Amino acid sequence: MLFRSANKLSILFTLIAIACIVIMFFLGFWQLDRKYQKEDRLAQIEQRKAANPMLVQEVADNPEDFVDFPLLVTGNPSNQTFFVDNRLKNGMAGYEVLIPVETNYGAVLINLGWVPGTGSRAELPTVTLPNSNEFEGVLYVPSDNVMISETNFNYGSFPVLIQQIDFDEIAKHLGKEVLPFTVRLSPDQNLDFLREWQVVVMEPERHLGYAIQWFGLGIAALTIFLLTILKSMQGRQD
């Protein structure tokens, strides 16, 4: 009975060890795949950056196909300002500031850039809005973070503090539809806003580093596992 229980435990530990080793190598290959994806994205950004600016009517129907392309927006800007909360730069809390620009093809959200917070969440920063009818930047489609819930339902009262760029919520505040993309303005258009746009969350080199760590852990675990089996077999022969 004791031998049978010990044998069952040995099989269980073996299965757990194999599963852990497989997971470690899987995570290593996954990190390598993420590295290649980031490299492709960065190469795409550099390639598209050199293209001539597109116009709103060319991208309005399928904005996802034109992410990272330069875009020229001509229209009437509004002072209806949106502050996107919890944006960090160099360890400092602040906001990204958006305004709608009315064009002949719909309202376009212009991301003016980042500004630091005031130190009090009850007081939004005072910003100087650009005096221009032309805005040039890069087309960007923000992803929806399902972990973030909107809290500002005081529709029509500006400036508006929002938790993320949610086009449906922004449309409710404006009382009209907006096109489902934003324009991240070029860095040289207004010095009042910081425009160090983060194109990828993690650089490819960091993914490579994580891959090496997972492969190292997998190799170490596999080595220990094989040595344990070898020692067990030797013990039985003795």
Give the key terms.
238 residues; nine-stranded mixed beta sheet; 4 helices; 24% strand
- What oligomeric arrangement do these chains adopt? single chain
- Give the termini separation: 23 Å
Largest sheet: 9 strands, mixed
Shape: elongated
> Cα-atom Rg, whole angstroms?
26 Å
Number of helices in the DSSP assignment: 4
Secondary-structure element order, as H and E?
Answer: HEHEEEEEEEHEH
Characterization of the model:
The chain is an alpha/beta fold. It has two domains: 2-42 and 203-237; 69-185, no CATH class. It has helices at residues 2-49, 56-59, 167-174, 204-237, and strands at 54-55, 70-74, 76-77, 82-89, 92-103, 106-116, 134-140, 160-162, 178-185. Strands 1, 2, 3, 4, 5, 6, 7, 8 and 9 form a nine-stranded mixed beta sheet that branches. The longest helix is centred in the first third of the chain and has 48 residues, at 2-49. The mean pLDDT is 86.
Question: TL;DR of this structure?
Answer:
This protein has 238 residues and is an alpha/beta fold.
Topology:
Layout: H1 2-49, E1 54-55, H2 56-59, E2 70-74, E3 76-77, E4 82-89, E5 92-103, E6 106-116, E7 134-140, E8 160-162, H3 167-174, E9 178-185, H4 204-237
Parallel strand pairs: 1-2, 4-8, 6-9
Antiparallel strand pairs: 2-7, 3-5, 4-5, 5-6, 7-9
Helix pairs in contact: 1-4
